[in-house]
Design brief:
Blueprint lengths: L8 E7 L3 E8 L4 E8 L11 E2 L1 H19 L8 E6 L5 E3 L9 E2 L7 H8 L4 H8 L8 H11 L1 H6 L2 E3 L1 H10 L3 E3 H5 L4 E2 L4 E2 L1 H7 L8 E3 L4 E3 L3 H7 L6 E3 L4 H8 L7 E6 L3 E7 L11 E4 L5 E7 L3 H15 L10 H9 L9 E3 L17 E3 L7 H27 L4 E5 L6 H11 L3 E4 L4 H14 L14 E5 L3 H35 L5
Parallel strand pairs: 1-5, 5-14, 9-12, 15-21, 21-22
Antiparallel strand pairs: 1-2, 2-3, 4-7, 6-8, 10-11, 13-14, 15-16, 16-18, 17-18, 19-20, 22-23
Helix pairs in contact: 1-6, 2-4, 4-8, 10-15, 11-13, 12-13, 13-14, 14-16
Length: 519
């Protein structure tokens, strides 16, 4: 892939939930090569979602090698690599580093009872103020507590509790180190002091020695374990830069470097994030705040239901179509084409898209999806449009919060799978009523990871300079009439949510009593 003259090259690795994606870039952040490798998750136990940590490690190795091979002829050896890690993962290891559990991902909600119980205590508000993390079962803090409560034999054997990134990093360097952002996403870090939070440790029931050493994302570690270096196609002397989280990297890789520039990511899940020069917390706890380094924090909200809602609908429709002798499976592109045939508002069909529960802004652990207004005049096309608009309404709620706490978002940058659809991009632009900028390179998390290697080695001076390195392939403007209509529909959507919200808990109790364990 590389054709221009290259003086130095760097590697950025993004350890995502479903795959590792890797880019090779030059000293100006221009992409020279790309590679990826998928790994599976096991969700057979309902609320559990685990991965094999060694599969993640092998996926990282393969993705790195693929990216280097894709780049073609490169000068000398790699000038530096950096790793980004998915937030909220957890595993326990023994004193020799042997896994005692599977790798629990962000989507693992087994610790919901622990989070619910603590949210009702007098210390809940204080913990949010210290850690920036609302009370939710995805946070490793509560997963550790779950192990203490439900698997005491494993808890007692655990020498350390680490994330996916820490596991991979330990295999590369024989050291247990974690960056501030991944640490902040655990619920165990004090985001003001950038040290492990005593109240969190007390709640989890663990000691300081069971957590990794904290370090700046620009920290350089010399040398990679020989066998892994060989398999990745790297020199033993390659400098390994600690890097940050996938969330921070995605934001940087899209070019959002100020608190008035947000990144809108829609992939399997979705998020709206800004980078701020200080910790900013919502007075009522609707958003989260994670440290990046000592000068920057990541503030925003995440929703469980992005592309995963569309995947659910596609699978449902495909099961129906395949029951017919002439039925053909639908693709995502065909679903989006179906939705584009229906006018804004889906002719009065409203979707609360909580297919996988809810995170920001209400953090209602019992929320489930609702279709309201479904009639004989509607068909599958209306349902697809309603799901897309339901996701957009969730993003509108996040933008409202960011506008309040930042003083106003004036530009939004797009990231994730939805950037491949002009129709979906315009729908979100109209709903958010803000200019949407689409970077030329869509895999912003791996690109953001590479930027830490450039920063640490001096090829890049500071985070602000990243903005000028991001080429843009499109700028979308909201339609005035469309934005006004979405604002009216959004108010109805919010009223509907408030009306049905009390029933979510009642339904959860019914499910627990009658259908628990049924897949």
């Amino acid at each position: 892939m590389a054709s221009r003259k290259v003086d130095a090259w760097f590697l950025g690795l993004d350890l995502g939930t479903g795959s590792c994606k890797t880019v090779v870039v030059d000293e100006r952040g221009r992409v020279l090569g790309f590679g990826s490798s998928e790994y599976a998750s096991d969700s057979s136990l309902g609320k559990w979602q685990e991965q094999d940590p060694n599969a993640v490690l092998n996926g990282m190795v393969l993705a790195a090698r693929n990216a280097i091979e894709h780049a073609g002829e490169l000068p000398g050896s790699c000038a530096g690599i950096s790793i980004g890690g998915a937030l909220h993962s957890l595993m326990a290891v023994d004193a020799k580093g042997k896994p005692l559990t599977g790798l629990m991902t962000w989507a693992d909600t087994r610790a919901t009872p622990q989070a619910k119980a603590f949210s009702q205590t007098a210390d809940a508000s204080r913990l949010y103020q210290e850690t920036g993390c609302p009370m939710h079962g995805m946070y490793p803090l509560y997963k550790i507590r779950w192990l203490k409560d439900e698997r005491p034999e494993i808890f007692q054997k655990a020498a350390r509790f680490i994330s996916a990134k820490e596991f991979v990093f330990s295999r590369l360097t024989d050291q247990y180190v974690v960056d501030y952002s991944v640490a902040a996403g655990s619920g165990l870090l004090n985001i003001h002091h950038l040290d492990w939070n005593p109240q969190s440790l007390d709640l989890a029931g663990i000691k300081l020695a069971q957590l990794s050493m904290l370090a700046d994302p620009k920290e350089i570690f010399e040398g990679i374990q020989p066998e892994l270096a060989r398999r990745m196609g790297l020199s033993l002397k390659t400098r390994l830069v600690l890097g940050s989280s996938d969330a921070a990297n995605s934001t940087l890789g899209a070019g959002s470097v100020s608190m008035h520039q947000a990144t809108c990511m829609v992939g399997t899940s979705a998020a709206l994030r800004i980078i701020t020069p200080r910790p900013i917390l919502d007075p009522v706890g609707r958003s989260w705040c994670y440290a990046i380094d000592r000068q920057h924090w990541l503030v925003g909200g995440s929703i469980n239901n992005g592309g995963i809602a569309l995947s659910w609908l596609r699978d449902c429709l495909n099961r129906i179509s395949q029951a017919s002798p002439s039925g053909q499976p639908l693709s995502f592109a065909e679903l989006l084409e179906m939705a584009s045939q229906i006018p804004l508002g889906a002719q009065g069909l409203i979707c609360l898209p909580f297919f996988a529960g809810e995170r920001s802004p209400n953090w209602n652990l019992d929320s489930r999806a609702v279709f309201f207004g479904l009639g004989l005049e509607h068909d599958a096309r209306h349902i697809v449009r309603a799901v897309l608009e339901g996701i957009a309404f969730r993003l509108m709620s996040l933008k409202e919060i960011l506008d309040e706490i930042s003083g106003g978002v004036t530009e939004i940058r797009a990231s994730g799978g939805f950037t491949h659809s002009n129709f979906w991009l315009q729908l979100v632009t109209d709903a958010l009523n803000c200019e949407l900028v689409v970077p030329s390179w869509g895999e912003t998390s791996s690109l953001g990871a590479a930027f830490w290697a450039l920063l640490a080695t001096g090829a890049l001076q500071n985070l602000d300079s990243i903005y000028d390195l991001i080429p843009v392939k499109g700028r979308l403007q909201p339609g005035a009439a469309e934005a006004q209509t979405y604002r009216l529909l959004y108010q109805f959507y919010c009223d509907l949510y408030q009306t049905v919200s009390p029933s979510f808990h009642a339904l959860a109790e019914l499910k627990a009593n009658f259908w628990e364990g049924i897949q």
